[in-house]
Amino acid sequence: MHHLDIAGLEARYGEHTVLSGIDLTVGRADVIGLIGPSGSGKSTILRVLMGLLPPVAGMVKLDGEGVNYADATQVRRLRDRIAIVFQQYNLFQNMSVLENVCVAPVKIKKRPRKEVEEEARALLAKVGLGDKLKRYPDELSGGQQQRVAIVRALALHPEILLLDEVTAALDPELVSEVLDTIRLLAKEGMTMLIVSHEMAFIREVASRVVFMAGGKIVETGAPAQIFDAPEHARTRDFVSKILRH
Amino acid sequence: MSYTLQFGQIWPFLPRLLEGAVVSLQIAVLAFCGGLLIGTACAGVKSFGPRWLARIVGAYVVFFTNTPQLVQIYFLYFALPDMGILLSSFMAVVIGMTLNAGAYLTEIQRAGFESRRASEMEAAEVMGFSRLQQIRYVILPHVAKVLFPPLSNQFIIVTLGTSMAAVFGVEELTGEAFNINAQTFRSIEIFSVTAGIYVVLTLAASVGLALLGRVLFRARTELI
Fold first, then answer.
1. For residue A184, what are the domain limits?
2. Which residue in chain B is spatially nearest to A101 when comparing CA positions?
3. Residue B81 resides in a domain
4. Chains A, B: CB contacts under 8 A, how many?
5. Is the pTM of this model over 0.80?
6. pLDDT (tens digit, 9 = 90+) per residue, A58-104?
7. What CATH number did the domain enclosing A39 receive?
8. What is the pLDDT of residues A172-198, one digit of tens each?
9. CB-based contact, A134 to chain B, within 8 Å
10. CATH number, domain with residue B124
C-alpha cells in the first residue's frame, strides 16, 4: 500500500488555479524532490496536504484512507501524522529553543514534560544545537533556526515530513548544515516531500524527482533520468538552465 | 521677596500625606486594572469582533479620549444622582478613571493584537493548536511582551491623573495637600513635598515595572 496517495488534486487562490490535476504516489521511506520554476505549485501541494489551503477537487489518501479536508477532526488527525517545515522557520519568538520544540508535544499532545524534554535534548544535540537550548530564536543564525524548526517538527513524531524550501532563506554557508540534517533523516527512513532549488542536493537525496510547471506535474522519474535524460522539452529546458550556472 | 521656607511646620503632617499617597495608589491600581479588563475586551472586539460591535466600541473610545477626564468624572458625580445613581466621590473618581483608562488601553492593546505574527500562528495551526490554544500560547505572550512598555507608561499616567480626585474631596495625596495647605498656608513647602512624593511613587513604579518586564518577557525597557 502507498503511504501517501494523491489523485486529481486541484486547488485555487481565488479565481487563480494553482494546482490542476495532481497525481502522485509516495511509498514508505520515499524521498520525493519537487522541483520546477517559481509559481509552478510545488509549495502549494505541501500547503494543501497540511490543510492550509482546502482543495477544490481530488483525493488524498494516507495509508489507503481518504482524508476529508472539510472535516476539522480529520484535519487535526492528519496533522498528527504529517509535519511541515517552512521556508521562514516560523519559530515562536517568545519561546526558548527547548520550549519551541516541547510546547506542542507537552501542551497539545499532553505527553509528560520530562520525557519530551529528554527527547528534545537528544534531537537538538543530534543536529548540533545541544548548547543552544536556552537561547531565543532572535539569538540564532538562520541555519540554526531552521534546524530548530526541523527538530520541532520531528518532536511531533510525524510519519511524513514536508520541507518547503527550507534552505531558500539561508546564507550559502549555512545551507550545508541544514542539508546534513535532512540527509540524516533520509538515511533513517523518514518519508519526505522536499521542495527545493538545491538541485545537487535533490539529486543526491531524492529517491524520485517530480518536475512541475504551471500547476501540473510534467515529468516524474529517478534523479538520473530527470537531470540527465529528461523526456519532456519543458523539463529539459528547466534542467539545462538550472545546471548551466 | 521675604518668604522664608519653613519645612519644619509641615513635618508633623507628613504621615497624612503618606496616607493620602496610599489612597492615590489604590485609585490608580483599581482604575488601571479595571481599564485593562475593559481595554482587553474592547481591543478584542475591535480586532476580531463583529463590525456593529466594533463601531460601538469605537464610539466609546472616541468619546473618552476626546473629552477632559475632569468633565467625565463631573458627569458621573453630579449628573448620575439625577438618574437615581448615587456614587461616593471615591467611587465616581475610580469609575471615571477606569472608563477613561479603558479607552486609552483599548487603542494600546489593539496595536499589540495587530502586531501578532501570522507565520507563527500558521506554524501553531499545523502543529495541532486549536484557535484558543494559539491565542493562549502564541498570541498573548507575544502581545504581552510588545505591550508591556506602553502599558507601564499608561500606569504612570493614571497614577498622576489621580490628583484630580482632590477636586471631589477625596483625601488622596493632592487632597491631603489641599487640606494641610488650608490649615498652615505653607503652600510652597507642602506642594513641593507633595510633588516629591509623586516623583518617588512614579519612579518606584517605573523601576518595578521595568524589572518585572525583564523577568517576564525579556522586554528591554529604558530605566529612566
1. 4-244
2. B127
3. yes
4. 53
5. no
6. 999 999 999 999 999 999 999 999 999 999 999 998 899 999 999 99
7. 3.40.50.300
8. 878 888 898 899 999 999 999 999 988
9. no
10. 1.10.3720.10
A88, A94, A108: residue with CB nearest B129: A108
- Residues B128, A156: C-beta atoms closer than 8 Å: yes
Residues of A in contact with B126 (CB under 8 A): 50-52, 79, 83-84
A127 pLDDT band (50/70/90 cuts)? confident
CA A74 vs. chain centroid, Å, equals: 20
B32 touches B158 (CB < 8 A): yes
ipTM value, please give it: 0.86
Chain B residue with minimal CA distance to A149? B123
Q: Give the range of the structural domain holding residue B116, as residue numbers without chain letter.
A: 9-217
- Contact across the interface for B123 and A108, Cβ inside 8 Å: no
**Pick from B126, B138, B217: CB nearest A50:** B126
Three cell numbers, residue A199: 538541485
| Counted domains in chain A | 1
Q: What DSSP letter does each residue of chain A carry, written as one string?
A: --SEEEEEEEEEETTEEEEEEEEEEE-TT-EEEEE-STTSSHHHHHHHHTTSS--SEEEEEETTEE--TT-HHHHHHHHTTEEEE-TT----TTS-HHHHHHHIIIIIS---HHHHHHHHHHHHHHTT-TT-TT--GGGS-HHHHHHHHHHHHHTT--SEEEEESTTTTS-HHHHHHHHHHHHHHHHTT-EEEEE-S-HHHHHHH-SEEEEEETTEEEEEE-HHHHHHS-SSHHHHHHHHHHHH-
| Inter-chain CB proximity B123 and A107 less than 8 Å | no
